[in-house]
């Protein structure tokens, strides 16, 4: 049996299809940031996370990496990101080659700038383990992708190009201390912070 669409119904169907087609790309397409395709979602601990924001880490005039931040629900303040429940992810895609020592030292400097001595004293062992990941990596090459996931009940789980590196770091306070490198009062890149909070990349 074949159904024939009346002209009126046919117009409505076409309009609805057009609206749906126009809406889908905004929710499904990757975002281009400095030539890197940043996916709109990521799956961590069995949950789908939404892209909160993404931008470029620039040192002087050199583009170092693209960073993307994923949360269960979008947040527009640093405090809200740090308090966000459930799994989280940040991902760095390298735009140039950086030695593991330089990468690790830059991270440590960012943590030191955005935490006090008492806070850091709680994470001595995790700081050491975090730094060792980059020393052991040797060199981060252009195109390499570092992901750092917060997995409730497990800790901070890191991977480079999809391969797990290091041991889980169990304290959410330490995960937040790492996030403060970009979202703290003294962010490593003042233009990247608002981009991660949903502003213009």
From TrEMBL:
Domain Chalcone isomerase, chain residue ranges per copy: 30-198
InterPro entries per record: Chalcone_isomerase, Chalcone_isomerase_3-sand, Chalcone_isomerase_sf
Domain of life the protein comes from: Bacteria
Extent of the signal sequence: 1-30
Coiled-coil ranges (or none): none
An example molecular function term from Gene Ontology annotations: isomerase activity
Keywords per UniProt: Isomerase, Signal
Protein name per Swiss-Prot or TrEMBL: Chalcone isomerase family protein
């Amino acid at each position: 049996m074949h159904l024939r669409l009346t002209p009126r119904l046919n117009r409505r169907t076409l309009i609805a299809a057009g609206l749906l087609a126009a809406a889908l790309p905004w929710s499904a397409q990757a975002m281009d940031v400095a030539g890197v395709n940043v996916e709109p979602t990521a799956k961590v601990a069995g949950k789908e996370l939404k892209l909160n924001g993404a931008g470029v880490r620039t040192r002087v005039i050199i583009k170092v990496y693209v960073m993307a931040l994923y949360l269960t629900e979008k947040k527009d303040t640093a405090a809200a990101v740090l308090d966000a429940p459930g799994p989280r992810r940040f991902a760095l895609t390298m735009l140039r080659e950086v030695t593991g020592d330089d990468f690790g030292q830059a991270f440590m400097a960012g943590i030191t700038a955005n935490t006090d001595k008492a806070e850091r004293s709680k994470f001595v062992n995790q700081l050491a383990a975090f730094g060792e990941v980059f020393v052991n990596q040797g060199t981060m090459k252009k195109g390499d992708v570092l992901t750092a996931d917060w997995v409730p009940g497990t800790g901070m789980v890191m991977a480079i190009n999809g391969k797990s590196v290091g041991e889980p770091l169990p304290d959410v306070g330490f995960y937040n201390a790492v996030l403060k490198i970009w979202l703290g009062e003294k962010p490593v890149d003042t233009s990247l912070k608002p981009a991660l909070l949903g502003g213009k990349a």
